[in-house]
Write a structure and sequence with these properties.
Length: about 170
């Protein structure tokens, strides 16, 4: 049996092979990633993570992270054989895992949480919940105009505009 060979024989650039530039035009990204420009434009519509900026002339300007995203998408589609919805799902799960692994941002001074520290944190959170559950005192609202009465509310806007008021001027 003959073994299957990859479609593209040249190795794609890794993250370190990307030139150190602030922005890349679509043609540069196309050459770097060995993907036609029309494919890049299509991927922009399929993958929400791929959002290059557009300059004043309307030219797409890719940042380094956009180029890395293109390389990752290309790897998922061409090398690993995912469909576009499958690759989209893989990227979404990868992002979820990255966000779920972020630290809480609580600096306890100790890297391991002892049971006493956890109880104190739980107590603080309960106090915060009680504080946030209290109804807020509402400031007194001042009315801008007096409430309408039954007959005057049925008058038209022009009637109100030309209404001389309770004491019309004498002529």
């Amino acid at each position: 049996m003959a073994q299957h060979q990859p479609i593209r024989r040249n190795t794609p650039p890794s993250g370190s092979d990307i030139p150190d530039k602030l922005y890349f035009r679509i043609g540069e990204v196309s050459r770097l990633c060995d993907v036609p420009a029309y494919v890049l434009r299509f991927w922009e519509s399929e993958f929400p993570q791929l959002k290059p900026h557009k300059g004043g002339t309307g030219q797409r300007l890719y940042r380094r992270r956009d180029v890395e995203a293109v390389l990752h998408i290309k790897s998922l589609l061409y090398d690993e054989g995912y469909t576009i919805p499958g690759a989209r799902q893989v990227i979404k799960t990868e992002q979820r895992q990255k966000t779920s692994q972020l630290p809480l941002g609580i600096d306890t001074g100790v890297t391991t949480n002892s049971p006493q520290q956890l109880r104190k944190l739980q107590k603080d959170l309960r106090e915060l919940l009680v504080h946030l559950s209290k109804p807020a005192a509402r400031p007194a609202v001042q009315t801008i105009r007096s409430p309408r009465t039954g007959s005057s509310s049925r008058r038209s806007a022009t009637d109100k505009l030309f209404d001389p008021g309770p004491n019309p001027p004498r002529t």
